[in-house]
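Can't attach files on this board, so I'm pasting raw text. These are the components:
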Amino acid sequence: MPPTLVNVAVGILLGVALLGAAFDRRSILVVGVAAAIPDLDAAISLLGIGATNATLHSIFVPIAAGMLLYYDTEIRENSWLKSNYGWYGARVAWVALAAYALAGIGLDLFSNEGVVILYPFSDRYYAVVGGFLLSTQEGVIQTYISFGDGWFELATPGTIETHHVETWTAPAGETRRLRLIDSGWQAVLVITAVVSVPAKYLIERQDRLAAGER
Amino acid sequence: MPSSVVHVAFACMLAVGLLGRFYDRRALAIIVGIVLIPELDTALGWVMAGAHRTVLHNMVIPIVVGAVLYWETTREDSKIRSRWGVRGVRIAWVGLFVHTFAHIMLDWAHLSGINFFWPLRDQFFNLDGELAVSTTEGLVQTFVQLSADPETGQSVVDAGQGGTRADTHVANPAQPSADPEPGPIDRRFPIAVRGWQLYLVVVGAFTLVAKRFQTPRPSEIEGE
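---
Top answer:
Structure tokens for the assembled complex are below.
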């Protein structure tokens, strides 16, 4: 998986984009933490439960959470979330869910190490890696998904038995290594996230003052 | 370059939040236009050797424009403010933000990088490396490496320096290679290469859709 720091950076960027008037120190912290939670399955796997990039990286976790959230905020007459935290609570919960699914799971799915996205119904790691380009000589080149027998296939590095995702909690060798940033583009995402938070803070303050004047 | 599609997607993701109350289709269109401007130096490549990734891909423009924009928007009779109001000021700043982060910084980390200090200094820089904490080596970072030259004993700084614009060519559809080979030329227009670029496109699209479905804050809560 890409380092957890990068998951958090993308989560923060999503929070800056979608929290809107609910943006404050507390809500951006909640969203950042939500993006980091999927990587806890590396620690849980040490207890013999599930596997890294599997247990909490399953698509069914955010789907179930989304259904619960929809029931509470839209269907139920007295929403627990809304009666306790109002509009703010509902907004933060939805954005945190998006950060969990997109920044926490999605980023890992689009990396070489892959994610057991259908856990526990399948134990195969899937990875969306490849390229999509237009060439004047070869036409459309698309290698993210391959089509065979009327069904599409993704690249897969193996199953839980054969593929080991190396983390600092479960190192392959003697050295434990906590990766923070792996490459240049990840550094750019982290820097952008760090700068966008104070920028959004200034913007929200300005917008709030303007709303008060109206 | 990561393709224009990737730049636009990342710019949209940033603009949704930073435009704030001025977010609408027109403002977004202006931001997308701004983030595409640096690609114009591709066309300059036909008349000026190594213009791509040099003329408009540097950190001097964001700093100069930032300084000018700060002076212009804070003075008494600001032209932007009097003509377009607070909205114009906001769009200008967000435009500078996406130009710097969604375009120049992303290209800095891609292939040969960007001509960082051009026109003050003609040298390409590429951001690449890693940051990690390990039990045997402690904190390790390889983005900027300091080492001693074994022969002269002088310290050497490696921050990903490359060549000058004369000897650095970044492949692009207009000029696939520096020296055209005989035979049919294969021009390639990348949409997304590798997982993370497609990922940024997906996330950028998601933020636009999610923003559309969001309900505004109810006014009764606003009074609290």
